[in-house]
Amino acid sequence: MPTITMNVNGAPVSVEVENRTVLSSALREGLGMTGTHIGCDTSQCGACVVHVNGKAVKSCTIFALEADGADVETIEGQAHADGSLNVLQQAFQDHHGLQCGFCTPGMIMSAAALLKENPKPTEAEIRDYLEGNICRCTGYQGIVDAIMAASGQSTAIAAE
Amino acid sequence: MYNFEFTKPKTVEEAATAMAAEGAQALGGGQTLIPTMKQRLASPEVLVSMTDIEGMVGVAAHGNTLTIGGATTHAQVAADAADLFPGLAALASGIGDPAVRNRGTIGGSLANNDPAACYPAGALGSGATVTTNKRDITADDYFQGMFETALDEDEIITSVSFPIPEKANYQKFEQPASRFALVGVFAAKFNDGVRVAVTGASNVGVHRWTEAETALNSNFSESAIDGMSGNANDMIADLHGSAKYRAHLVGVLTRRAVAGCG
Ligand SMILES: Cc1cc2nc3c(=O)[nH]c(=O)nc-3n(C[C@H](O)[C@H](O)[C@H](O)COP(=O)(O)OP(=O)(O)OC[C@H]3O[C@@H](n4cnc5c(N)ncnc54)[C@H](O)[C@@H]3O)c2cc1C
Ligand code: FES
Ligand code: FES
Questions:
Q1: Nearest CA to CA, how far is B110 from chain A (Å)?
Q2: What is the ipTM of this complex?
C-alpha cells in the first residue's frame, strides 16, 4: 500500500493508505484523529471540512493520495497549545453555536476559512459561505452570532 | 468503492498515455466522480489525476479571449476572471459551496455535462471552444444532451477558451437542497449578436434559446422578450417543478439576465 506524508496541524506524519482511501478515512482511521466527522460521506453536509494547503475542502471527497505532501489543518489543531479554546471556538460556546456538536468541526473549519478570506463578513456573507455546512440542531442563528462575535462584530442582528 | 490504480501525470502527453489504458478515467476535483464511485455507479480501473499537469491550471486573457486551463478550480476562476469576464466569474462563484469550488474544476464540469450544471450554460452562452488533447470543439458541437458530450472516452479537456462578450450575466434559480440550478440562464451580448443558453430546464440538456436571441438581437432589452417563456413540451418535470413552471422560469430568468447585463 502507498504511504503518504502530510503536515497535519504543523506536524509531519506518514500514513499508509489504499488508492481509494479518502482523506477523512486517512485522518480518522489511519491517524486516529476522529475530530473530523463524517455526516453524509457524499459531499453534502460539510461535517468533514478540513483545510488542505489553506483551502477548505470536504475531506470525504478528496483521495488521500491527492493530499500527499500537503499541509492539512483539522479541528484538532484549532485550540491553543494549553488546550484552551481559540477565539472562534470560544465564541461558538458563548453564543450557543452548537448543541450536539456533530457538525461543529466542519462549521469551525469553514468559519475559520471565511475569516481568513474576509475578516469582517456580513451576516449574509456568513450564511452564504456556510451553504455547504448543515446543522440539524441550532437553526444556524447561534452559529452566525458566534462568527459575528469572533470577528469582533455586534451579534445584535436582525434575522433575515 | 472498488479500488483502482492511481496515476498523477505531470504532462498532457503522459496523461494521454495513461488514459489509453483499459478502464481509465480522468479525475478532476472528484466532486462528482468520488460520490459516484462510492455508490458504485462508476468503477474505473485507473484514475488519471488532472490536478498536477503542467499548463492545465490557470486563467489568462489574450486579446478578447479568456482561456481557462481544464483543471482550474471554480474558486480560481471566480477570483482570477473577476476583472476579465465578470459574468463568468460570477457564475463560477455561485457553484455549490466554497469547499466544492475549492476542488471542482471546469474540465470536470464540462465533461460531466450534468443537465443542471452551471458551466455548460456559460460555455454555450459565450460560444466557447473546448480544447482537448486531440482537437478543438465548439460549444455548439460539444453539448449533445443530458450527460452526453462530443468527447471520446480517453479524451482530456486541456483548456476552454471563451470569447469575452461586451456584457454577460448568469441567473441561477437554485434548487436549495442540491445547490444546482433548477433553471439557469446565461445571456451574453457580443458586437455581432446575442447568445442565450439555458441549463437545468430541458430534457435535451443545455441548449440555446433561439427565439429570445432573435428578439434580443434587434433590441437588447427586457421589453424585447416581455411575456415570452420556454417551450413547456421540452422541459423536465419532477418533484421540484413542473414543465410549465420551468418554462416560465426560463422567461423570467432570461429577462433578469438581460437586466443584469446593465
Ligand atoms: C454539494 C455540491 C454542489 C454542487 N453544485 C453545483 C452547482 O451549483 N453547479 C454546478 O455546475 N455544479 C455543481 N456541482 C458539481 C461541481 O461543479 C463539480 O465540481 C463538477 O461537476 C465536476 O467537476 P470535478 O472537477 O469535481 O470533476 P470530477 O468529479 O473529478 O469528474 C467528473 C467527470 O469529468 C471527467 N473529467 C474530469 N476532469 C476532466 C478533464 N480535464 N477532461 C476530461 N474529463 C474530465 C471525469 O472522468 C468524470 O467523468 C456541485 C457538486 C456538489 C458536490
Ligand atoms: S461527510 Fe463530507 S460532506 Fe458530509
Ligand atoms: S450542533 Fe448538532 S448538528 Fe449542528
A1: 19
A2: 0.95
